[in-house]
Amino acid sequence: DQQVKQNSPSLSVQEGRISILNCDYTNSMFDYFLWYKKYPAEGPTFLISISSIKDKNEDGRFTVFLNKSAKHLSLHIVPSQPGDSAVYFCAARGNSGGSNYKLTFGKGTLLTVNP
Amino acid sequence: DAGVIQSPRHEVTEMGQEVTLRCKPISGHNSLFWYRQTMMRGLELLIYFNNNVPIDDSGMPEDRFSAKMPNASFSTLKIQPSEPRDSAVYFCASSLYEGAETQYFGPGTRLLVL
Question: Which residues, other chains included, contact A2 with Cβ-Cβ below 8 Å and sequence gap of 6+?
Answer without folding.
Answer: A26, A106, A107
